[in-house]
Design brief:
The chain is built from five helices and no strands. The chain is mainly alpha-helical. The radius of gyration is 21 Å and the shape is flat.
C-alpha cells in the first residue's frame, strides 16, 4: 500500500472516530443533565463515547508518530508481513478458536443446569479469547 495513501486514510478514520465519540459524549451529557438517561441507554451511549473517542485519539497519535519516522514504519510493515510471523498469527488464531469453542460448549452445558446471565458470560469469553490467543502466540513463538 502506498505510504501517503495509508497515512491519509488513517488520519481520516481517526478524525471520524473522534467526531463520533464527541457527538456521543455530547448526547451523554445532555441526557445526563435532562435526567432521561436509563440503564440500557447509558450503556450504549457510554460505550460509543468511551470506545470511539479514545480509539480516535490513539489513531491520531499513531498517525503523528508514523509521520515523524516513516522508515521505522516501513520496517514494521516488512516484519509484519514476514512469512514466519504470518504463520504464527494464523496458527495461534486457529488454536485459540478451538479452545474457545470448547469453552463455549462447556458454558452452554453449564447453562442448561444453572441459568447464567449472558451479560456475565460475554465479557468473560472475550477476555479469555484475548488471553488464550496471546498466550498461545507466545508459546508458538518460542516453539517455532
Amino acid at each position: 500500500m502506498n505510504f501517503e495513501k495509508h497515512l491519509k486514510s488513517q488520519f481520516l478514520v481517526a478524525i471520524a472516530y473522534i467526531v463520533i465519540g464527541v457527538i456521543a459524549l455530547i448526547a451523554l451529557v445532555i441526557l445526563l443533565i435532562s435526567g432521561k438517561l436509563n440503564g440500557k441507554l447509558s450503556g450504549i451511549i457510554g460505550g460509543l463515547t468511551f470506545g470511539f473517542l479514545p480509539l480516535g485519539i490513539g489513531l491520531l497519535l499513531d498517525y503523528y508518530r508514523v509521520k515523524r519516522n516513516p522508515e521505522k514504519w516501513k520496517k514494521e510493515i516488512e516484519l509484519k508481513n514476514e512469512e514466519r510471523n504470518i504463520f504464527l498469527r494464523n496458527k495461534s488464531g486457529y488454536e485459540a478458536f478451538g479452545i474457545m469453542s470448547f469453552l463455549m460448549l462447556g458454558l452452554w452445558g453449564v447453562n442448561i443446569w444453572v441459568n447464567i446471565s449472558s451479560s456475565l458470560v460475554f465479557p468473560v469469553l472475550l477476555g479469555m479469547m484475548s488471553i488464550s490467543y496471546f498466550t498461545i502466540l507466545t508459546i508458538n513463538a518460542k516453539r517455532y
